[in-house]
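Hello, quick one for you while I still have it in my head. A protein chain has come my way and I'm curious about its shape. Can you walk me through what the tokens say about the fold? No rush at all, and the record is pasted right below.
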Amino acid sequence: MRIYYVYILKCSDESYYTGVTNCLERRFAEHVNGRNVTCYTFTRRPVELVFFREFGYINDAIAFEKQVKKWSRKKKEAAIKACWEELKLLAACRNLTHCKNK
């Protein structure tokens, strides 16, 4: 079975980059070496791998990557620190339209 990875890189400008790959070592090396000049990380090197999660199915990995890309910086940092309770609190909607507030 093939393994897929969703990963987060911390860039030199303190921003985060989220991606998906089937070979984490190769993909990280591509970011480090600046293989693609149009890649977000090219001008933000050096980069540091700060998070990754394994998936058995590419569709699950892509769905999680899309979800993470929409997360706030605080949510990403909670995942990086493996603070899952904090992530749950940050994910709770607190506006007036939330179902708990109706």
Observations:
- The chain has a mean pLDDT of 91.
